[in-house]
Amino acid sequence: MKETTDYERKQEELTWLENLQLNSWEPEVIISGITLAFLFVFPAKIYEFSVYLIQEVGVGYLPSLLILFYLTTVVSVFKIFFVVHLCLRFVWAGLLGLSYAFPEGVINQNLFKIAQGYNYQKPADMVLRLEKICSMTFAYPVSLVLMFLMLTVYFGFLIAIYIWFDLNLLTLSIIILLSLAAFFTLVLGRKKTKLKIWYSESMLSSISAIYQSNLGKWLAVVYAILIFAFSVPIIISDTDDFSMFSNDRGLIEKELEWPGKHLHFQSDHVAGSRFPRSFIPREELDDDYMKLGIARYEGDGKIITALNTEFISALDSMKWQPIQETADLHRVYIDEQLVPIETWSKHRIGGTKQKIYQTGIDISNLAEGTHTLRVEKLLLKYGFIDNQAELITIEHWDQFEFIKR
To answer: How many alpha carbons fall within 13 Å on the CB side of residue 340?
Structure first.
């Protein structure tokens, strides 16, 4: 009696699983559509989060750039996966309709003579074959989800240590290399360790093994590589202009020749995004008074004490104004004439809550026409290995043109 009950229960479970497999297209399409809707929103949030780390937390540009590239890569890869899946489901739906309209498929004698005599696939066979491909395409990202989840936790832990202990890039790089070397030694070594046994029995390893053993080792790898390759243009687009938030470098020739209006004029600025350097209300000014804003970088505050002690003589020789806060690290020029700044006021911009310094500049003496505003910045540059400070002046920290009416 017990054996009969167990058999019936097993049959019910198999029937339930088969029904799920037959109707898997419904949750697949719903999940893909909803996920894509969220994925197209994430890049802007990731971009702003990376900028927030630089400006508000004081994280260096390189770690923030790596975070941006990593998270953008994750989102872009899944975009490609789900777009491919939805496209395949679109074709599948077309074939499904074709199989309903013409279940018998091709009628050879009704074709042109040049097309007769060949073996054509039946619509039902094509539907079943594409159904397997769609399901396989949808299941593949599951293994990547688990992998990216572990990497995200790992990198999040490293960034937390980096911020908490105020480490330099050399120390952080050594920690990353040592931890990765230890992990790959344990996982890729031939000796069967407890870690390898645990990993091989995990869902991540099992899914990868299923794909490799059924599709072929190299086909599964090539498929993943192609997805990453197709995501590269999306990654480049989603990280555009992020280099402007590299606080310790001057503008390159392209940025000087083709400055972005949305980065310098509030009237052209993208709502909900941060300013990387300096900005004014609009390109054309009708008043005799210009409001100039400069983005505040938290990391600048760490060098003020050193500047006022170790480099005080250098500041005197440069005739630099007394440095009391990070706004004093900047000099403003209009048409290469130094503009004296008496005071800077502190503000936060609505939406992003970005901290900025703002001042007013009298431009009544300027003639009508185009003028150039340039911002020079004083910083300390630390060596990657010896961590020794070097005083640097970034002459073209920012530069753009405006029009006086």
So the answer is: 2
